[in-house]
Automatic annotation (TrEMBL):
It catalyses: [GlcNAc-(1->4)-Mur2Ac(oyl-L-Ala-gamma-D-Glu-L-Lys-D-Ala-D-Ala)](n)-di-trans,octa-cis-undecaprenyl diphosphate + beta-D-GlcNAc-(1->4)-Mur2Ac(oyl-L-Ala-gamma-D-Glu-L-Lys-D-Ala-D-Ala)-di-trans,octa-cis-undecaprenyl diphosphate = [GlcNAc-(1->4)-Mur2Ac(oyl-L-Ala-gamma-D-Glu-L-Lys-D-Ala-D-Ala)](n+1)-di-trans,octa-cis-undecaprenyl diphosphate + di-trans,octa-cis-undecaprenyl diphosphate + H(+). It comes from the Bacteria. GO terms for biological process: cell division; cell wall organization; peptidoglycan biosynthetic process; regulation of cell shape. Pfam families: FTSW_RODA_SPOVE (PF01098). Its EC number is 2.4.99.28. Residues 24-34 have a biased composition (Basic residues). The keyword Metal-binding does not apply. This is Probable peptidoglycan glycosyltransferase FtsW. It is found in: Cell membrane. Belongs to the SEDS family. FtsW subfamily. Pathway: Cell wall biogenesis; peptidoglycan biosynthesis. The keyword Glycosyltransferase applies.
Length: 426
């Protein structure tokens, strides 16, 4: 309780600090003045032409959080590539493919992700507010792609992929990043009207409903849960009152429950984790084999390449259930390190949100931290058998180009906010 109150107090203190940042002073004509150096992390050279001011950033030394995020993401991506190779090589060879096929494809997406991370980190994060409408429209249009004949693909009963020229893309991954930007922009513009229904609450609920609804239409419950959690977290950080938040949470839970019980097969699969012994021969096979894999690791693990369950016993060992292979081959030490790494990444995101130079940056950082935290919890919960299996990837680890690319791009956006902590007049 004490820690929760402390976090809430710090959140409120940060909101109070940023309360007037979104209010622009009236424009006045001033004479051109020579730029002066400031002791802040950001120095700007300003050129005033009439009523317009052009400001170019000169960023100083980044804070320690910036280096921490880079370190965690770099370790995750490199370790993820190693584990994808280890988990996929045998099964790919048994299928007559190159044992490096999945690894090479994941490495290619890691290269694209590095480009996206660097680009997002270098672009001032406020720039994205100019493009919220196109971002939203593109996100919705992309989610309709899996239903288009010829390019839509059905995998494990979910119409959630687009396949073009040999590439598979999951639009819901890109929608998560779009929802973070859209919700953060809305609650920045409406910072003085958090309880206004038509201006704030209904549009916010609309963002969550459209995003999660499109995921449910694709039969992708896991992504719907993550999208709803992102909006809920950003709303809480922004200071939306408790009653609207509780109402949104109750309605979202009711819709999710209705979706699950609408199909007996879906309900059986969703509740299989409650009876691991009775379902281990069918619906609970993955969880059963994952448990065996995790238990086989012991404290130090069987070593890279030493897992036996990845040879065909554990389906999707290189994607959704890659954490079981991590625990098997790297042991309790490696598994604990991965869990601790996600905890650190979320902590860095929270620290960035609390120290952000403006409200938009605060909501972006908080939304991204919630995204990584919730998705990791759902994936790890499913692999360890304490939560239903929803088919969500483990960010930075699971094989899947869309997930890896978007996760790295989101980390770059978080770095862009972190880089500007402590600036004056950013």
């Amino acid at each position: 309780m004490t820690s929760a109150l402390t976090v809430n107090d710090r959140r409120q203190a940060a909101l109070d600090r940023l309360a007037d940042k979104g209010v622009r002073p009236p424009r006045t004509r001033t004479k051109p003045q020579r730029a002066t150096r400031t002791p802040s992390r950001l120095r700007a050279i300003a050129r005033t032409d009439g009523d317009s001011t052009v400001r170019r950033e000169r960023l100083g030394a980044p804070p320690g959080t910036w280096y921490g995020i880079i370190a965690v993401v770099a370790v995750f991506v490199m370790l993820g590539l190693v584990m994808v190779l280890s988990a996929s090589a045998v099964t790919q060879a048994n299928q007559g493919n190159s044992p490096y096929s999945v690894f090479l494809r994941q490495s290619m997406w890691a290269g694209f992700g590095l480009i996206g991370l660097v680009a997002m980190a270098r672009i001032p994060y406020r720039m994205w507010r100019k493009f919220v409408v196109p971002i939203g429209l593109i996100g919705v249009a992309a989610m309709l792609g899996p239903f288009a004949p010829g390019i839509g693909a059905n995998v494990n009963g979910a119409n959630a992929w687009i396949r073009v020229a040999g590439f598979s893309v999951q639009p819901s991954e890109f929608l998560k990043l779009a929802v973070v930007i859209l919700a953060a922009d809305l609650l920045t513009r409406r910072q003085h009207a958090m309880n206004h229904r038509s201006g704030t609450l209904y549009p916010l609920a609309g963002i969550a409903a459209v995003g999660a609804g499109l995921c449910l239409a694709q039969k992708d419950l896991g992504s719907a849960i993550v999208l709803g959690s992102i909006v809920f977290a950003i709303a809480w950080i922004a200071g939306v009152p408790f009653t609207p938040l509780a109402t949104m949470g109750a309605l979202s839970t009711a819709v999710g429950a209705a979706f699950v019980v609408s199909s007996q097969a879906r309900l059986d699969r969703f509740t299989a984790f409650l009876d691991p012994d009775g379902t281990k021969d069918h619906l609970g096979w993955q969880m059963s084999q994952a448990a065996i894999s995790i238990a086989s690791g012991g404290p130090a693990g069987s070593g890279i390449g030493g897992s036996n369950t990845k040879t065909g016993y554990l389906p999707y060992a290189h994607s959704d259930f890659i954490f079981a292979i991590v625990a098997d081959e790297l042991g309790m030490i490696g598994a604990g390190t991965v869990i601790g790494g996600f905890a650190m990444l979320v902590l860095f995101g929270v620290q960035t949100a609390l120290a952000a130079p403006d409200r938009f940056g605060m909501l972006l950082a908080g939304g991204i931290a919630a995204w990584f935290g919730v998705q990791a919890i759902i994936n790890l919960g499913g692999v360890t058998g304490v939560m239903p299996v929803t088919g969500l990837t483990l960010p930075f680890f699971s094989a899947g180009g869309s997930s890896l690319f978007v996760s790295m791009a989101a980390a770059g956006l978080l770095l862009s906010v972190t880089r500007r902590i402590g600036v004056r007049g950013a």
